[in-house]
Automatic annotation (TrEMBL), chains A, B, C:
It holds the Pfam family MC_hydratase. It comes from the Bacteria. It comes from [Roseibacterium] beibuensis. PANTHER family: BETA-METHYLMALYL-COA DEHYDRATASE, MONOAMINE OXIDASE-RELATED. This is MaoC family dehydratase. Gene3D superfamilies: Hotdog Thioesterase.
Amino acid sequence: MPKDAGPQAKTNPGRFFEDYTVGDVIEHAVPRTVSGGERALYHALYPARHALYSSDEFARACGLPESPLDDLAAFHIVFGKSVPDVSLNAVANLGYAEARWLRPVYVGDTIRSSSEVIGLKQNSSGKTGVVYVRTTGRNQHGLAVMEFARWVMVKKRDLDAPAPETVVPDLAPAVAPEKLVLPGGIDFSAYDFVQAGEPHRLSDYQVGEVIDHVDGVTIEEAEHMMATRLWQNTSKTHFDATPRADRKRLIYGGHVMSMARALSFNGLANAQCLVAINGGSHTNPCFAGDTVRAWSEVLDIAETPAPGVGAIRLRLVAVKEGGMAGQLKGEDGKYLPHVLLDLDYWALMPA
Amino acid sequence: MPKDAGPQAKTNPGRFFEDYTVGDVIEHAVPRTVSGGERALYHALYPARHALYSSDEFARACGLPESPLDDLAAFHIVFGKSVPDVSLNAVANLGYAEARWLRPVYVGDTIRSSSEVIGLKQNSSGKTGVVYVRTTGRNQHGLAVMEFARWVMVKKRDLDAPAPETVVPDLAPAVAPEKLVLPGGIDFSAYDFVQAGEPHRLSDYQVGEVIDHVDGVTIEEAEHMMATRLWQNTSKTHFDATPRADRKRLIYGGHVMSMARALSFNGLANAQCLVAINGGSHTNPCFAGDTVRAWSEVLDIAETPAPGVGAIRLRLVAVKEGGMAGQLKGEDGKYLPHVLLDLDYWALMPA
Amino acid sequence: MPKDAGPQAKTNPGRFFEDYTVGDVIEHAVPRTVSGGERALYHALYPARHALYSSDEFARACGLPESPLDDLAAFHIVFGKSVPDVSLNAVANLGYAEARWLRPVYVGDTIRSSSEVIGLKQNSSGKTGVVYVRTTGRNQHGLAVMEFARWVMVKKRDLDAPAPETVVPDLAPAVAPEKLVLPGGIDFSAYDFVQAGEPHRLSDYQVGEVIDHVDGVTIEEAEHMMATRLWQNTSKTHFDATPRADRKRLIYGGHVMSMARALSFNGLANAQCLVAINGGSHTNPCFAGDTVRAWSEVLDIAETPAPGVGAIRLRLVAVKEGGMAGQLKGEDGKYLPHVLLDLDYWALMPA
């Protein structure tokens, strides 16, 4: 490369809409080995208390070899790797679907990630398009640990580039219970409700029930940046205060997701393992100084083949100040301004 | 539970004064496995430099199998588990007594915690009462790692609930030296003063001597919240800025304790292992922006049966700006407004 | 020591200029065992993405037994130990030279550090002098992991103390390529450029080429204090806001160094192992709120005896707002006011 190629010639400019082709598989860079350090940091950054992810003894009593890394930490690692290739030039992160955890991540595992382009649709403006990818995280044995589809709106580099053939993937509105993959060996038949922190089993919850998780956490800049960096997420908007006049940094939506999930312990202490995300929207931006609270709604209940293990489908809603349990959208059908996250997921719970 | 039980029906409201009965044993939830991550975070959050807790090699030269988790970290973990059951509705944390470390906590240990109610005394107002508990932390082998008594003022839920019989436990004003439990195998006969950082042995200290630890640390919100969360302490007041008009979060007293202990390295580098807390008071609140300093007073000196190991009883005082070494109380006998912590403890030091 | 020796009699006042003698070797206190916790914290505090330091699998494919601790983390640990003995009373950290990494630091290693005084020169003012030291870090086997020379300006305690004989060491302007020490077994012949994140090998870079690393990070107080404490650096100026009217804390120069190095991934993803620092200057102070960016200039290129491994000599420049890639000094020959760091180092890259 000639010297006069300019000082940005070797840096990654990210992909633009016309750089994607349906069927392409992108191997994301920078594999990552996790240790007890990642687990401890997760507990320092979020009020995480689900016992299966806190105690090796509790995990063993549930049939696992030891306590896995928190499922959302695994998600963040797999997701973070895809950012430089998928969402560096994204205008918006539009949605998630068909996310499944396929195998727990344990201390010592090395995670890498790849994405297949599964859909493309240029917007009518001709300036942007929607890119659909299916991202898969794998461990050092090449075994998949999780997969998810997401779609993002990406800028075009060249507005005159021709529009690709429109391909919109057929994504399930929810992961069917029979498609949930359970951690190998999981068994809740000797589940210790006292050590887990709450007495409620799956049969104590009813579809439609709303749970206010009560507690709130006021967010600090240092914390969301440490979390986002830990997952090697390179999106500039979370770290660099200079582009905005108010010098605010937009908080990674996954930080709000983990905060809300951790807060949901209070009322859902036995919703231990995340096994699927059916859909999710980051409905309003979150900034440092906001106080995040959460509420959940029970959407569905299902059986699983594992001993004593049921599945609960939950809507997890994160709100900032002004949010009230059960209040999601206004009369106009739009999300209320204090709703930060609307996440639809499946978790495992003692039946 | 019926759907119309309301969105807070499954969350933990905490116990109120009338929910305690003398003799009850409460098993606290969420056991916790510790790793090198907790140790590294302790070193990132506090200027901790005591060599026995920093170096496996130093610890082995002192007869231990490896470097244990900092003793105050063990205390915070055991204490944190008790918060949801003991102090969620506490108006004030009134005191500690008879705290003893009974066995070091090592990487890989899983800690759980339980509390026995050992006293109850309704206040004359009829609105609150004092609850005395003895809390014990145990490792995965069921062996006690530490125990302490504490008493808190707790609200009554129902002001008309009858007052219980008053039981005030007989707590020792200090742990007698012969009741100190030493880490198994500890031996300071080949103690390396150079690697430890200071030349002073127990015989260099005199009862009544005051040590100004000089250094100061200005406290940040992100740090005290990360620390408090790491110990899974759920007290809302440390995390949620919204209840107070000034949006201040009250800092967990244990954060001040660990900060002061770490600062005390400068002058007490050889006060390695904490073995007992005789008493302690969080005398004034600490908020982000305060600059914490510390001073110590030598209260007593004792022998131990271990080779080369003596015990030093210290008053550790944390102060914010305006505090001066040796200044504890005003002429009215009350703590000065800049005194944050008055802690009376025993530590082990080369004799 | 008599009780009336005063409350600061046992604390470390640090050494003053007249306390140093050429040829003295100072053993620094507080050895430190590193774990996965330190590695995870490094990834949380900096946007570190170099694959060799992120993935055990990647490291093994490059001939190492596992992923080492980041080289700058090793530097900070060795450096931090020297602060209480070398720079507690320093007015300025003047420079570095002849720094070489000699052996990677792995999880489980215990690091200690010592410094030899190699030069002394009293300043003409008679109030201060320059102290030159060569600091060496060693692991638990006594094997050197890194060494560096640095020189600091230190206050005299007693202005009437006689000036020592001036000894100015002969320090190399740069570490010669043949003096670089490579990690044992390193082999880039099967280097995975896809997992590493960029396609550029050594032959793609030209001497004189400037690389703008583009991304910026706005610095927070909590983060730089956590980093600096993690390395057990005791310099008061980084932690105590009270001495300055503006309550700013001066950020440890090493924090800026690690931030700039991590940012340099974007354009230098394959500059994996640091092997030498030829020189370095902290040219302007950095404070919380500053947004740090970085650019690099290729200074030299060299061969090494290891398979597929070349060496690249780089100037790494950290800037705050206003800094532009390639702009280092003004017409007066002085560093521009927004230049924070000018670091000259050797790294290993696939040839």
